[in-house]
Specification:
Strand content: 25-35%
Largest sheet: 6 strands, antiparallel, barrel
Distance between the termini: 20 Å
Strand order of the largest sheet: 2-3-4-7-6-5
Length: 227
């Protein structure tokens, strides 16, 4: 059991955990582990882990929750969603961290498929950085927005787009920066193609039918390596 998990033991309380099942499943998938592997690491039956992942109101015992957090290399607080409304990176830095430059191939691998990134734009009120749901399509970044919104200000300009990931449990992370020109996608066939490939709609909801594409001119990235 790691030090962070042991520290969490004092704060474990029997209480509703909301969407803990989804957090369990997501963390397991992030680590590339099967239910059988996690169940074995946590010392529990696989069917019970499946039950926890599928039943949002299930409340495992404090001891079992600590074992799951340890098996998933995270904390009890993260599994319970305790940091949902807090910015990432509140934990202490790891010992002997090293900032490593990533190759363009590594950067593209981390950008692949889809996720949430931040785009930097400049408008009448000055610079702004806003999050958008993006996906990769034919080597370019694409996202949906609405006319008059902050992300729409990127059209016709050189912009910066950043994607990152923070691993609170291991105090590691990475970030990728894409710099390129943004354009409004208006060709009906291209729009139809993008709609067919959409993995997830904008989390913000609303009418966001305007597609914007960023052609990368430069892709750079760095990651925190712990020795």
């Amino acid at each position: 059991m790691n030090q962070q998990t042991r520290t969490d033991a004092a704060s474990v309380r029997p209480q509703p955990v909301g969407d803990m099942g989804r957090r369990l499943a997501l963390r397991r998938e992030q680590l590339g582990l099967t239910r059988e592997q996690v169940a074995d690491l946590a010392g529990m039956a696989t069917p019970y882990l499946e039950y926890l992942e599928q039943q949002p109101t299930a409340v495992p015992s404090a001891v079992l929750l600590l074992s799951l957090a340890d098996a998933l290399q995270t904390t009890v607080s993260e599994l319970r969603g305790g940091g949902t409304d807090l910015p990432p990176g509140l934990g202490k830095a790891a010992r002997h961290p090293e900032l490593v430059e990533m190759t363009p191939e590594e950067c593209r691998a981390r950008l692949s498929t889809h996720g949430v990134g931040r785009i930097a734009v400049t408008g009448d009120e000055g610079p702004a950085i806003v999050p958008v749901n993006y996906q990769m399509a034919d080597g370019s970044l694409v996202f949906r927005t609405s006319p008059g919104s902050a992300p729409a200000l990127s059209i016709g300009a050189q912009v910066a787009f950043e994607v990152d990931h923070i691993d609170e449990a291991l105090s590691q992370g990475w970030s990728v920066l894409v710099v390129g020109s943004a354009e409004h996608v208006t060709d009906p066939d291209t729009v139809r193609h993008l709609i067919e490939r959409t993995h997830s709609g904008p989390w913000a909801g609303g009418d966001r039918a305007m597609w914007v594409r960023i052609h990368p001119d430069r892709i750079t990235g760095r990651r925190i390596h712990v020795r």
